[in-house]
Amino acid sequence: MLGLFPLNLVVFPGVRLALHIFEPRYRTLIGQCVESGMEFGINLVEQGHLHPVGCTARVVEVTQTYADGRMDIIIEGTRRYRLLAIRDDERPYAVGDVEAYDDYEGPVDTMLAGRCGELYNQIVDLVYGEGGPRMTPTMLAADTPSWLMAPKSGLSLDQKQKFLEILSENGRLEFLFEHLSEIVPTVRQAEAVQRIVQGDGYLPPNDV
């Protein structure tokens, strides 16, 4: 049994996000999680459709509380699950029955992880410049480096949900490699156009 917080976003295991909690029912849920240390579940909801595969999360920090009960929090995704059913429950927030949604076991393709890391770091350098969140060799050697790269890889919401549902690390790496291979040239082209526009020597138009 798991308290649910459906949102129009996708949370990945090991990834942190900032949330602003304002609805009374979710203030109750998060308040109970903060007090007890229990986790809650986040499922993507879009256009009235609730995706069954979600990710549990824990509250890492309450960064601000407001007089009316609202709060700003930092959460961290922990593990994936599949929502089996919504319970008929008296609590103000939804409660669901869930089952674990774990990877199939298998060795990670380290060469593929390295190729993904190279493309990912190119995107980071182009978008964030020096000091951006680059992948290091140690990070790429982890058991699941794909979760570390996905949040800053320019995935759409639908792509993030598909990524969350992939049941192997190599499958996620393949997904990322294909995606990054497509967007790196686009980002490079956009950067080149921006440089041309910024340095073309023309003055902005005068008001007439």
Quickly describe the structure.
By secondary structure, the protein is an alpha+beta fold. It has helices at 24-36, 110-128, 137-140, 145-149, 157-165, 169-198; strands spanning 2-3, 16-21, 40-42, 45-46, 49-50, 53-65, 71-86, 95-100. It folds into 2 domains: 2-100, Roll (Archaeosine Trna-guanine Transglycosylase, Chain: A, domain 4); 110-198, no CATH class.
What does this entry look like structurally?
The chain has 208 residues and is α+β, with helices and mostly antiparallel strands. The chain folds into 2 domains: 2-100, Archaeosine Trna-guanine Transglycosylase, Chain: A, domain 4 (Roll), CATH 2.30.130.40; 110-198, no CATH class. It contains 6 helices and 8 strands; from the N terminus they run ββαββββββααααα. Strands 1, 2, 3, 6, 7 and 8 form a 6-stranded antiparallel beta sheet that branches. A two-stranded antiparallel sheet has the order 4-5. The chain starts with a strand and ends in a 10-residue tail after the last helix.
